[in-house]
């Protein structure tokens, strides 16, 4: 059975999807989508041999070789045709997701939707979307097995209508901020505690990066504002 996390990602793929799942590991998501939707097609991209082999085995076991193509490669380089319309990048840090998108910019021309699930630093991906003509259209936050996950969905646009104004939208996510559900509150309570701990460590250290210190202090203020 697919995790709630990946099921939530799956919700944002259209019928008849042709998508690339980058860092697919066991190819669970492409196999799930192609099993429930006989019109769907996918590329499962993997950079590492172990996960690449697991993906191939799983696809073969389900007899989905015709519709799930498992390709070994770095990031978006596994996208070699222009039929691919959606990209999923899940289960990595926001920094890595951003660099995968950035390094593969030439592969994004026909991409209609990008769905990401950054484990940390979602703000880096939100910022990247704003700067690259992708408009955030939905966000989800959920807790599963003790972990809190964020899922961001962005569609390609000529002009971004929704400008994520200011730091607050970028940091918290405009939709998540609006909803402020239980998982969101829990996440940001933890993030606040983390930052306070780091501030304490920095103040104890002899050499202090004051700019960084101020940045953390200001973020704590923002978090308190949002949780109030
Ligand atoms: N996407 C799956 C999920 O969400 O359950 C698997 C996540 S797993 C934690 C991350 C995977 O990304 C690993 O299998 C790793 O080998 C792969 N990966 C890391 N960097 C990559 C890159 N630049 N290109 C393709 N795959 C990458």
TrEMBL record:
<dbReference type="InterPro" id="IPR029063">
    <property type="entry name" value="SAM-dependent_MTases_sf"/>
</dbReference>
<dbReference type="InterPro" id="IPR006901">
    <property type="entry name" value="TrmK"/>
</dbReference>
<dbReference type="GO" id="GO:0032259">
    <property type="term" value="P:methylation"/>
</dbReference>
<dbReference type="Pfam" id="PF04816">
    <property type="entry name" value="TrmK"/>
</dbReference>
<protein>
    <submittedName>
        <fullName>SAM-dependent methyltransferase</fullName>
    </submittedName>
</protein>
<dbReference type="GO" id="GO:0160105">
    <property type="term" value="F:tRNA (adenine(22)-N1)-methyltransferase activity"/>
</dbReference>
<keyword id="KW-0808">Transferase</keyword>
<keyword id="KW-0489">Methyltransferase</keyword>
